[in-house]
């Protein structure tokens, strides 16, 4: 949202205020205030003109403005009711040089997982991609994936879903029917040997979505806790992610606290082959330490499966 529009909205949120007074306070013309009020109405905000001035009476359910309203993190949100993939749009924005923009969609028609797997993205989810330009060497980027998984797990726990994390990027919910996937993270980057140019962190969260609209191995917030206010949930997720990224070393303790993988027997498919053993720890920037029959092995990327105890 433009800076002035955001300030007009903040002004309205404080209580009824007349157009001229708001114009004075923000040091813009009355015509500009009127223009922004109209644009906010267009975006779904209820703004009544009363004797005491403009009054904010309703906030849109979801969308860019709804998420930015009261957001305590420096992100601009670009919203789509439908898009092929928010990661693709975020990559294009990253190439243009932007930073701290979130591409958000209600529905994706070409959502992607890792290695070009399909990601089911029906209407009602939270499908978003953050464009970041961290001052990090490329080798440390995995910590962003962990940070996004922690932020997502914590945000859904706040709405009553007991989520845990499977290394490296899956947010799971355990139940009688085993562990099911509630959210996933797809991190993509571009950079040189010593410095990252951009990182796009994509998060797909099955929010107000029927369980029948996602794979059998998946679950949704709707199925576990009923529908939620997606704007509040998204804000919470973004704020937690912003806090975590500002302290990369602090991500690991938070991740360990939510990990379902540590202490479990796992099978990890890596490019170099299969690793089977007990997952004993995660090390910066996101390396899984597995105790195998032949000793300790470190895995930096791969697909992890939780096995039954031997
Ligand atoms: C992931 O991949 O878990 C990363 C998913 C990232 C999706 C977000 S949505 C916003 C942004 N824009 C994009 O285009 N992508 C990102 P991976 O670990 O490879 O898991 C993929 C597997 O999860 C699939 O092969 C299915 O088995 C399963 N799956 C597909 N859709 C799912 C869903 N909605 N919920 C849970 N599991 C799903």
**Ligand identities:** biotinyl-5-AMP
> Major sheet, described briefly?
7 strands, mixed
Distance separating the two termini: 54 Å
Query: What structural category do the secondary elements indicate?
Result: alpha+beta
SSE arrangement:
Blueprint: H1 3-13, H2 19-26, H3 30-42, E1 46-50, E2 53-58, H4 64-68, E3 76-83, H5 86-96, E4 101-108, E5 126-132, H6 142-158, E6 163-166, E7 170-175, E8 178-191, E9 196-205, H7 221-225, H8 230-245, H9 248-258, E10 265-270, E11 273-283, E12 287-292, E13 295-299, E14 303-306
Parallel strand pairs: 3-4
Antiparallel strand pairs: 1-2, 4-5, 5-9, 6-7, 7-8, 8-9, 10-11, 10-14, 11-12, 12-13
Helix pairs in contact: 1-3, 2-3, 6-8, 6-9
The chain binds biotinyl-5-AMP (BT5).
Structure description:
With 310 residues, this protein is α+β, with helices and mostly antiparallel strands. It folds into three domains: 3-58, Winged helix-like DNA-binding domain superfamily/Winged helix DNA-binding domain (Arc Repressor Mutant, subunit A, Orthogonal Bundle); 64-258, 2-Layer Sandwich (BirA Bifunctional Protein, domain 2), CATH 3.30.930.10; 265-306, Roll (SH3 type barrels). Helix content is 31%, strand content 32%. The chain has helices at residues 3-13, 19-26, 30-42, 64-68, 86-96, 142-158, 221-225, 230-245, 248-258, and strands spanning 46-50, 53-58, 76-83, 101-108, 126-132, 163-166, 170-175, 178-191, 196-205, 265-270, 273-283, 287-292, 295-299, 303-306. The strands form three sheets. Strands 3-4-5-9-8-7-6 form a seven-stranded mixed sheet. Strand 10 (265-270) and strand 11 (273-283) form a beta hairpin. Helix 1 crosses helix 3 and helix 2 packs across helix 3 (30-42). The longest helix is centred in the middle third of the chain and has 17 residues, at 142-158. It is elongated and about 75 Å long.
């Amino acid at each position: 949202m433009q800076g002035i529009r955001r300030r007009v909205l903040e002004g309205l949120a404080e209580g009824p205020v007349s157009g001229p007074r708001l114009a004075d306070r923000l040091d813009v013309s009355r015509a500009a205030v009127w223009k922004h009020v109209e644009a906010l109405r267009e975006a779904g905000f209820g703004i009544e003109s009363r004797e005491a001035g403009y009054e904010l009476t309703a906030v849109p359910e979801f969308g860019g403005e709804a998420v930015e309203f009261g957001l305590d993190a420096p992100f601009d949100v670009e919203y789509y009711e439908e898009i092929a993939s928010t990661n693709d749009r975020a990559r294009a924005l990253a190439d243009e040089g932007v930073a701290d923009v979130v591409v958000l969609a209600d529905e994706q028609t070409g959502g992607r997982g890792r290695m070009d797997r399909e990601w089911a993205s029906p209407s009602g989810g939270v499908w978003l991609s953050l464009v970041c330009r961290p001052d990090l060497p490329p080798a440390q980027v995995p910590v962003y994936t962990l940070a996004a998984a922690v932020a997502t797990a914590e945000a859904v726990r706040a709405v009553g879903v007991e989520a845990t994390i499977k290394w490296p990027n899956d947010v799971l919910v355990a139940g009688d029917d085993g562990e099911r996937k509630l959210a996933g993270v797809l991190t993509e980057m571009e950079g040189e040997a010593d410095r990252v140019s951009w990182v796009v962190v994509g998060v797909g969260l099955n929010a107000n979505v029927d369980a029948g609209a996602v794979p059998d191995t998946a679950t949704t917030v709707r199925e576990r806790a009923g529908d939620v206010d997606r704007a509040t949930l998204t804000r919470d997720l973004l704020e937690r992610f912003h806090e975590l990224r500002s302290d990369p070393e602090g991500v690991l303790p938070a991740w360990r606290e939510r990990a379902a993988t540590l202490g479990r027997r796992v099978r990890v498919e890596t490019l170099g082959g299969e690793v089977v053993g007990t997952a004993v720890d995660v090390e910066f920037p996101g390396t899984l330490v597995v105790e195998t029959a032949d000793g300790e092995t470190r895995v930096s990327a791969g697909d992890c499966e939780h096995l039954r105890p031997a």
